[in-house]
Each structure stands twice: as C-alpha cells, then as structure tokens.
Amino acid sequence: RFFRQHWLPAHWSSVPLSSIIYSYRLNTMILKTRLFGKIKILKKEIINFTAPILGFDDCRQYVLLERETSFPTFWLQSIDNLSLAFPVVTPFSVDENYSIKLSSEDCEDIQVKRADEALVLTLLVVPHDILSIRTNLRAPIVYNPQKKLAKQIILREEKYSIHYYIMNNRN
Fold first, then answer.
1. What are phi and psi of 152, to 5 degrees?
2. Helix (H) or strand (E) holding 20
3. Which residues share a beta bridge with 156?
4. How far apart are the C-alpha atoms of 125 and 149, rounded to whole Å?
5. If DSSP codes are grouped into helix, strand and coil, which group holds residue 17?
6. Helices marked H in 13-124 — which ranges?
7. Measured between alpha carbons, how far is 79 from 61 in angstroms, rounded to an integer?
8. Which neighbouring-strand residues pair with 63?
9. Interacting residues of 67 by C-beta distance below 8 A, sequence separation 6+
10. Could you give the CA distance from residue 30 to residue 23 in angstroms, rounded to a whole number?
C-alpha cells in the first residue's frame, strides 16, 4: 500500500502491482501484458496522449512496440490497462496518397510546428476473417516522437473511410 501511494502515479491505482515492476534507479519498467507477456520498457519510451483514444477514457499512457509480422504493424500497448493493446499501422502503407492537415490546436497539443514533424498511425481492426482487416483512416493518431505526445484526431472531411479494408478491394 505504501508503494502504491508514494511511488506510483495516481492514475495507476487500478493497475495490479503484480503486473508492473518499476526500477527508479534504472528508469525501467517490466510490464506483464496479456499479448506480449513480460516486456521491459524505459520510462522515456512512454507516450502520453493529450486526449484519450475514443472509447478508452481511462488509458492515456502507451508504449509503441514493433513486432515482426508479414505486414508493417506496430502495437500501442497501454500502460494503464495491460490487457489492452492496439495494432496500428502507418496509413501511408495502405494508401500512398494519404495526407492530413493538422489544425494549429492539434499541433500545439502534441508540440509540433508542422504536420510533417508528427508520425501518423491508424488503428487496425483484426477480425477472424483475414479479408476483413481494416483501418480507420478518418481517425488517425498523430504522434510527436521527440516529446512523446500523441492525440487521436477526427478528420472532418469525408475523403477517407472509417472502414478501409486492407486485404481486398472492398473500398
């Protein structure tokens, strides 16, 4: 109880202590995740979302993991909920003409001066039917890798699909 009250950030109160081992001396954490088992991360790798991903209000800290697959996929592993990890992809790998405009507020939130300073990712939906793998191109995540700040934005124009199918031509 003392450890939870004095050493862990307040928003981690719901994360079981058995799932996190933190070393202040080395600034490392070992997380026991549902998908990846034990993973070791550096505190400086934690990405802070300035607003939560839609539908996941209690999760604001993530780490970006790269896993070997046949498709260029990364994972956003939640630090706040170790059972939660999102497969993400750069939208440029599914649509080479993809482009977005960031508002000045979005740039300010993730502390970039220009949109090209941000890494853009989209969440993947991976159902049992491989032909139904899709991504939401209208709600990308913009991420400042230098400041470790990110935000999901909703594009107002309907240029991009909410359900962009990757494995076939249903688009």
1. -90, 135
2. strand 20-23
3. none
4. 23
5. helix
6. 104-110
7. 5
8. 77
9. 36, 73, 74, 75
10. 9
Phi first, then psi, for residue 109 (nearest 5°) are -60, -40
Token pair 């991360």: residue: 41
Question: Do 43 and 28 touch, CB atoms closer than 8 A?
Answer: yes
pLDDT tens track, the chain, 171 positions: 333 333 444 444 555 544 555 555 568 888 999 989 999 999 999 999 999 999 999 999 999 998 766 566 799 999 999 999 999 999 998 888 999 999 999 999 999 998 889 999 999 988 888 788 889 999 999 999 999 999 999 998 889 989 988 876 565
Helix and strand tally (H, E) in the chain?
2, 12
Beta bridge partners of 77: 63, 85
Pairing of strands 47-49, 149-152: parallel
Task: State the distance between the two ends of the chain, measured CA to CA, in whole angstroms.
Answer: 52
What tokens does 55 get?
């539908």
**Structural tokens at position 22:** 């933190």
Start-end of H helices in 29-169: 104-110
The amino acid present at 159, given as its one-letter code, is K
Name the token pair of 105. 């507020």
Helix (H, G, I), strand (E, B) or coil at 84: coil
Measure the CA–CA gap between 145 and 148, rounded to whole angstroms. 5
Identify residue 71 by its one-letter amino acid code: F
The two tokens of residue 27 are: 């600034």
Flag whether the pTM goes above 0.90: no
